[in-house]
Amino acid sequence: MIQESEENHYKLDKIDDHEPDPYVVPPYSTMHVQDDIAAAKHDVSEHDLDDMNDFARRTALLECEHLKSNIPKLEEFIPSEYFPNILLVNDTNDLVSGTGCRFKTTRYAREEKPSRLLIEYERVWPVFDRDVQSNLGVPSEAKTVDVNRLAPKATQLRVARLHLSASSLIGVGHHSTVYRGIAVKIAGSSSSARGMLEKEANIYNKLPKHLMEDWNGFNLVTPHKYPVPADAVVPKFYGYHVPKDPYIGSCHLDRSPILLVEECGVPIRSYGMNPDEWCCLTHVLRLHYANFIQNFLYERNILIQPGPLSHPPSERSFDRPSFRIIDFGRAERLED
After folding, report:
1. What are the two backbone dihedrals, phi and then psi, of residue 196, each rounded to the nearest 5 degrees?
2. 219-250: per-residue pLDDT in tens?
3. C-alpha distances in angstroms, 210 versus 45, 149, 232, 286?
4. Calpha distance 294→332 (Å, rounded)
5. CB atoms within 10 A of CB 141
6. What percent of the chain has pLDDT over 70?
7. Disordered: where is this region (predicted)?
C-alpha cells in the first residue's frame, strides 16, 4: 500500500515501472445484460437481506426491480451518432409541470393512464458537430461548434422516447424531483428551480469525460494517504432537453426542462460504512483537482451501488462498491 509516511513496500519509481499504462474499464454492455436477464432474475433472499445494512438492502431490491422489469440500466455512453436530437415524452401524470410532485406519487401510481399526446423536447446539451451540420433538433443558442471542423457528410435526425411515471420516483429535493428512466431530473415550477437545473446541466456538460469513466489501477489523491480505485466520480451525462412548446394548455404553468443522467444507486448512510468505503470522499478532492466545487455536499448527494460495473449485474457486490457524487445545481467551475 502506498503511503506518504515512507512505509512503502516498494519505492515509487519501482512501482511506476510495474504499473501498466492507464486505460478505461468499460461497464458491462447493456446488450449483454438483456441476454443475461433470464438467468440473473431472482428475488433477494432473507438471508442476503439480513447481511446488508439499510442502503445496501434498498439498492439490492432496486436491482431486482430492474431485472424483473426486463429493463437493464444504461451505464454506457451513448455514441454521438446515436444521441437523440428530439425527445418525445409520454408524461402520464403531468410531472413535467413540476408542481405538487412530492404529494402525488402514491395516488397517481394507482390512476396512471397513458398520455394521449407526446411532448416534444429538444436537446440543448451536449452539442455535437453533426448538430450544427444538420441544423436539426438543437436550439440556436446551443449551436456554437466550430463549423470548420465539421465532416461533409450529412447526419439524420435522431428521435427517442421517454416514459415518465410517478410510480418511478427515485428522490425528491428542495428544487427538483428525480424519476427512473435513466435518472430523469425535473425542476419545480419556480424560476429559481428552473435556473438551478439549467446550471446543473451546464456543469455536467463541462465536466471532463474521464470523471465519468472507470479506469484501471489506483489514484493517490493527496492529502489522502492511501491509494484508491480510479473509479468514475460523477454519473454519465445523457443530455439536457427543453420543451419545444413550454406552455401547458390554458393554465399559467410551463413545462420543466429535463436533465438525463446515469442512475447510480442510493444515498450512502455514513453510520454503516467501513473504512474502505470512506474513500468515496476522495471523489470530492478529484472534483476540486478538476476545478469543480459541488457546494452542497450531504450524504444524500453521494450514491452507492454494487460493483464493479464491468461485471454483469448478477456478479456485482458491495464488497466492491461504486460511488458517485450528484446534485450540481449549486456547483461552480473555478475557471468560469
Report:
1. -70, -35
2. 989 898 889 999 999 999 999 999 998 876 65
3. 37, 23, 7, 11
4. 7
5. 7
6. 68
7. 1-21
Residue type, 133: Q
pLDDT score for 171: 85
Report the chain's C-alpha Rg in angstroms.
21
Query: How many of the other CB atoms lie within 10 Å of CB of 149?
Result: 9
Global pTM value: 0.80
Alpha helices for 24-90 (secondary structure H): 30-40, 46-50, 54-68
Question: Shortest CA distance to 72 belongs to which of 13, 29, 120, 119?
Answer: 29
* pLDDT over 60 (residue 11): no
- Give the C-alpha separation, 8 to 158, whole Å: 53
Rounded distance between C-alpha atoms, residue 168 and residue 182, angstroms: 11
Query: In a 3-state reduction of DSSP, which class is residue 177?
Result: strand
How does strand 86-91 pair with strand 159-164?
Answer: parallel
